[in-house]
Structures are given as C-alpha cells and as structure tokens.
Amino acid sequence: MLGNMVTNKIKELTATKAKVIKLEKSIAAQLARELAALPRQYGFASTPAFLKAVRAAAGKSKGGAAKPAAGKRRKRAVITADTKAKVKALVAAGKTGAEVAKAAGISLPSVQNIKKELGLVKKRG
Predict the structure, then answer these.
(1) What does the buried/exposed string (b/e) look like for 71-99 if buried means 16 or more CB atoms within 10 Å of the residue's CB?
(2) Residue 71 CA to chain centroid, in angstroms?
(3) Please, are residues 101 and 110 in contact by the beta-carbon 8 Å criterion?
C-alpha cells in the first residue's frame, strides 16, 4: 500500500511537470506573437525600424553600447607623479583648466586639486 502511494505521487508529479512544460511553451508562443505584433501596434512598417526607435529611446547606439547617462560617474582617474608633472607643464604653457583636464585625461576638479597642491593657484583678494 505504501509503495502504491509513492507510485501515485510520482505519477502525479510527472503529470504536473508535463503540464508545466506545456504551459511554458504556450506562454513562450504567446509572448512571441505579442512581440512580433509590437511594430505594427506602434505604427512601424518593419521590425528593424521599430528596433532602431527602441534603441534610440533607450539611449543606445546601433551597436548596442549604451551612451553614458547624464550625471553618471566615470571611473576615477589615478593621479600619478607623471600626471601632476603634465598638469604643471600645461599650466606653465598657459593652458586653461579645461584644456589641461582634456589633455591630461582627468576632470577639471582634479586639475584644480593638483594646481592647489603644487601651489599654482592664485590667491583671491
């Protein structure tokens, strides 16, 4: 009798797994149909035109790489002795802070910090 109970449970489990597989396939098919209909629903003549619009709306280029988000922080620059020497030379050459930052590959606040550290900042007042 105990063996019969286990056998029945195994049969029930097998049937339930089959139902789940059938349901998953049904959902996948429905999803595919709905996704295929999206371009028409939004007035696009073709799927590529629709994808282009979706990428543009998501801020992505054709290659799929995301454009940097406004306000998103970049990786911190490592300020080395060479970086400081380059900043010093560029400041001595009369470059603006923005020009120095671009040439050295660091942020403007980093340029200001280096100038302050090297004593290159004019006193106010």
Answers:
(1) eeeeeeeeeeeebbebbeebbeeebeeee
(2) 13
(3) yes
Q: pTM score, two decimals?
A: 0.41
Which SS3 state, helix, strand or coil, does residue 66 take? strand
Find the angle CA(73)-CA(69)-CA(64) to the nearest 5 degrees. 120
The upper half-sphere exposure of residue 98, i.e. CA atoms within 13 Å in the direction of its Cβ, equals 0
Q: Tens of pLDDT along 54-72?
A: 988 888 655 555 555 566 6
How far is residue 27's CA from residue 67's CA, in Å, rounded to a whole number? Answer: 33
Distances (CA, A) of 97 to 43, 100, 102: 49, 5, 9
Rounded to 10 deg, the angle between the 81-92 and 108-117 helix axes is: 90
Q: pLDDT digits over 31-54, tens only? A: 999 999 999 998 998 989 999 999
- Token pair of 33 as six digits: 């149909």
